Amino acid sequence: LKQEEEGRGIVIRCYETEGKESRVRIKFFKRPKVAFLTNIIEEPKAPLPVDKTVMRTRVGKYAIETFNIIF
Questions:
Q1: Considering the entire predicted model, what is its pTM?
Q2: N or C: fewer beta carbons within 10 Å in the chain?
């Protein structure tokens, strides 16, 4: 977890260690304006749906995923 480069939000990096695809649920303290899946150097790849203050996604086996959350 760290502050986003432009200071508008946060970057969350997750990794899967058990060798199986995993579901991820992240609850935020307030509703994000937008959430993106990014590559490892934090360039946006795809928008992610956020339901009010909860983001749900998947992390593949042994994968590292980076999310950019803008508030």
A1: 0.87
A2: N
Please give the DSSP secondary-structure letter assigned to residue 5: T
Percent over 70 (pLDDT), the chain? 100
Amino acid residing at 51? D
- Number of C-beta neighbours around residue 1 at 10 A: 8
- Buried (b) or exposed (e) across 24-35, using 16+ Cβ within 10 A? eebebeeebeeb
Closest by CA to 57, choosing from 36, 30, 39, is 36
Q: Which of 4, 47, 10 is nearest to 30 (CA)?
A: 10
CA 34, 58, 4, 27 dihedral sign is: positive
